[in-house]
């Protein structure tokens, strides 16, 4: 350990610190006497010498990506845990510094959607053991310091009484410098510059306080155990075990607005969140602009967008919709506050958010495709002949019935949600002997109970239904695709369909089709604001309405919630009358679709287009 050091002043008025290191510390850091000038470049040299001698710091700083960083963290955690609790204060300080960097890594992994538990399955349990060892060592050190202070005070009081000493006057020299705190701070500063994450926890400063006129001894600030908002956010986003994972749904989506609160309020302690601060946050939420016309570097976070609007005085900017404020911002903050209350981080009253600015945009209702828009979509190379498997939007001599090809057609001809299409299994295509249908029920109750993990991911309870398959899909070869995949022992109808995993662990199945739709809108220059991928459902609803199909039948086909009576009866059984109506559903635009699609299929069957499979 370092011996007591002192604050000195040179002849030119500049301060310096002199630290005499013990044998063990000198061996570790390669120094025996450290004299640091606080107002010249010598301090930076000292910082480099200290940091360079901590091996794990060099490894973390040099890590090029999260994969490498995770490998380093996982290996170091296992080494520290195997060694057991730290034996002295220096080792404890090093472990505490490493603990901060692990927390930064976990935060960074959450923000970027990196599923580190899959790559490092032992890390969560090792991390818990590591923190428990640190806490135990900190408690033991605190008790030891109390005992030392007591024994020292008693010994000095005895000596003073025996020798008749008077009460000493206040010292005019600075307090002894703590090299452990300095080392820990330097380590955190160096790594924080590399990771660019949450602000490094403050563990003390090595800068001398200005000398007051009276030269009175410094007063130590009162300590608090309340966590800061950013620290609670890290806990909020921590991945849970498989038995509690369902309780964390939606936390990843809430992260951005909670981070906005952290940035806006200056990362306060949870016990500093007063009614005034909640009100400040409430009033700021409606002033967040959407991303349109904001440079990318100024739109990475909600707070950056908020500040950009302030600086530009809202030039060419628009506010977010009321739906975004209520469904994302308010809901995300309420979820965070509920967590903080449940975990005893926050003990104040639950806030209520109410502010909406008159300039906030109203939600935009979706509309159905026009016939012309639909036919322009189906005339693209993906449906008529493309360049290859990858460049499906460029014309060519290949016919590729990919998951995107079938995804668009199934959405159009059945009214299914994009996220439902990606989950279709080969076994979901069934027949009653006359009609074919998709069975989208969570599971078939006639076969008995199933595990929760095997249930289909549905938007609502009403989404569990059976949907007649339009004959055009069968004519285009859907049953042939199903049979080929069954022969390959594939389970899903679209094995190439990649699901998107959110930060909270939930799966978004609509991602591939949504990205394709954004590209289609750009190349077709479809600038109608109310035209979205969900417009395929509105298109099917229009067809059903125009054919005078009953409301209850319409709700069943589209998977909408109906009245209470709709929850009972033989809901999962295909109604032959409904199937017949869907099969006969062929407005003029479907006849035009048939001509375009079957012409390309016929050319492929005749060998004029080369067929390429994607599975």
Q: How is this structure best described in words?
A:
The protein is mostly helical and 615 residues long. It is built from 24 helices and ten strands. It has helices at residues 23-29, 42-52, 55-62, 66-83, 89-111, 116-119, 123-163, 179-195, 229-237, 251-265, 275-284, 302-312, 322-342, 371-378, 381-384, 403-414, 418-421, 471-475, 478-487, 511-524, 535-546, 551-558, 576-583, 588-605, and strands at residues 6-9, 15-20, 33-37, 398-400, 429-431, 436-439, 466-468, 500-501, 507-508, 610-612. It has a three-stranded antiparallel sheet. A three-stranded antiparallel sheet has the order 5-6-7. It has a two-stranded parallel sheet with strand order 4-10. Helix 4 packs antiparallel against helix 5 (89-111).
A few lines on this structure:
The protein is 48% helix and 6% strand.
What tags apply to this protein structure?
mainly alpha, three-stranded antiparallel sheet, 24 helices, 6% strand, disordered N terminus, 615 residues
The quaternary state of the protein chains shown equals single chain
Radius of gyration, rounded? 33 Å
Head-to-tail CA distance between termini: 64 Å
**Global geometry:** elongated
Total strands: 10
Strand content: 5-15%
Weakly predicted, low-confidence segments: 1-7, 24-31, 36-43, 45-53, 167-177, 194-224, 458-463, 559-573
Please estimate the helix content. Answer: 40-55%
Order of strands, main sheet, comes to 1-2-3
The chain-level mean pLDDT equals 74
Specify the structural class: mainly alpha
Number of helical stretches of at least 4 residues: 24
């Amino acid at each position: 350990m370092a011996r007591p050091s002192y604050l000195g002043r040179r002849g030119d008025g500049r301060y310096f610190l002199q630290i005499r290191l013990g044998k063990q510390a000198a061996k570790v850091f390669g120094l025996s006497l450290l004299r640091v000038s606080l107002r010249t470049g010598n301090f930076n040299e000292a910082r480099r010498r200290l940091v360079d001698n901590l091996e794990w710091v060099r490894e973390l700083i040099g890590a090029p990506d999260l994969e490498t960083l995770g490998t380093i963290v996982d290996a170091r955690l296992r080494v520290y845990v195997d060694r057991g609790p730290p034996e002295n204060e220096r080792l404890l300080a090093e472990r505490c510094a490493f603990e901060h960097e692990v927390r930064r890594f976990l935060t960074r992994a959450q923000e970027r959607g990196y599923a580190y538990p899959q790559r490092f399955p032992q890390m969560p349990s090792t991390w818990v053991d590591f923190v428990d060892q640190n806490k135990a060592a900190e408690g033991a050190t605190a008790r030891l310091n109390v005992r030392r202070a007591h024994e020292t005070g008693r010994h000095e009081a005895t000596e003073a009484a025996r020798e008749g000493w008077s009460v000493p006057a206040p010292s005019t020299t600075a307090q002894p410098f703590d090299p452990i705190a300095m080392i820990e701070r330097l380590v955190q500063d160096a790594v924080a510059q590399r990771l660019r994450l949450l602000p490094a926890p403050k563990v003390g400063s090595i800068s001398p306080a200005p000398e007051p006129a009276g030269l009175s001894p410094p007063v130590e600030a009162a300590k608090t155990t309340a966590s800061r908002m950013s620290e609670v956010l890290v806990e909020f986003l921590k991945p849970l075990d498989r038995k509690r994972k369902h309780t964390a749904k939606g936390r990843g989506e809430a992260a951005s607005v909670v981070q906005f609160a952290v940035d806006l309020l200056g990362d306060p302690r949870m016990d500093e969140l007063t009614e005034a601060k909640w009100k400040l946050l409430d009033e700021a939420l409606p002033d967040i602009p959407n991303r349109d016309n904001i440079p990318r570097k100024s739109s990475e976070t909600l707070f950056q967008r908020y500040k950009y609007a302030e600086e530009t005085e809202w030039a060419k900017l628009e506010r977010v919709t009321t739906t975004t404020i209520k469904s994302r911002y308010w809901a995300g903050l309420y979820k965070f506050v509920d967590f903080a209350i449940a975990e005893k981080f926050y003990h104040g009253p639950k806030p209520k958010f109410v502010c909406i600015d008159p300039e906030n945009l109203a939600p935009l209702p979706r509309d159905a495709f026009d016939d012309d828009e639909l036919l322009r979509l189906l005339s693209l190379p993906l449906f008529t002949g493309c360049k290859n498997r990858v460049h499906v939007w460029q014309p060519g001599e290949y016919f590729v019935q990919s998951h995107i090809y079938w995804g668009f057609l199934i959405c159009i001809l059945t009214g299914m949600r994009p996220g439902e299409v990606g989950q279709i299994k080969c076994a979901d295509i069934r027949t009653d002997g006359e009609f074919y249908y998709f069975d989208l029920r969570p599971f078939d109750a006639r076969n008995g109970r199933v595990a929760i993990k095997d249930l289909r991911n549905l938007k609502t309870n009403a989404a569990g239904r059976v949907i007649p398959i339009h004959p055009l899909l069968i004519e285009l070869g859907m049953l042939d695709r199903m049979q080929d995949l069954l022969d390959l022992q594939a389970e899903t109808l679209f094995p190439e369909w990649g699901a998107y995993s959110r930060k909270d662990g939930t799966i978004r199945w609509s991602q591939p089709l949504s990205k394709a739709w954004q590209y289609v809108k750009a190349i077709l220059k479809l600038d109608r604001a109310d035209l979205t991928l969900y417009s395929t459902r509105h298109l099917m609803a229009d067809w059903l309405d125009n054919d005078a199909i009953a409301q209850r039948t319409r709700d069943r086909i589209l998977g909408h919630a109906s009245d209470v009576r709709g929850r009972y009866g033989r809901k999962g059984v295909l109604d032959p009358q409904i199937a017949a109506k869907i099969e006969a559903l062929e407005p003029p635009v479907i006849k035009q679709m048939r001509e375009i699609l079957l012409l390309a299929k016929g050319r492929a069957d005749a060998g004029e287009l080369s067929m390429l499979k994607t599975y």
